[in-house]
Amino acid sequence: MAKTLGLHIIADLYGVNPDLIDREEDIRHLLENSVKAGELTKISSHFYQFNPHGATGVILLAESHISIHTWPEHKTATVDVFTCGDPSKAYRAMDYIINSLSPTHVDKKVFDRGIIEDSKGKDVLWIMSKAGCC
Predict the structure, then answer these.
(1) So what family is this one in?
(2) pLDDT of the residue at 134
(3) Is 133 tagged catalytic?
(4) Which domains does the chain have, with CATH numbers?
């Protein structure tokens, strides 16, 4: 099994109650609580309220980041959770967001990021460079 530097979960949430994703303060509260649920370490954050509706926000983590972008007029939110270290933290943070917003449909993808070793402990980048592909 490959060793990776991090886990990246992206999700498109459809059928979200627009009242839950329209205001900056609501998504701020949502992301702050997802950091707690994932037992992650917040470094800083930035949120922005769009006019007439919708908001966006990002929390910079010691482990990487969590972000959300909302379109209440389409009942849609896109969420991004990327962490290094314990992958269960990313899953817990994302699960908190999904459970809090109760979408009718979720399109979620999970990516291993920064593959650094193969199952035998060999450096993948070294192997790829010797093969002439990097």
Answers:
(1) Belongs to the prokaryotic AdoMetDC family. Type 1 subfamily.
(2) 31
(3) no
(4) 3-130 (3.60.90.10)
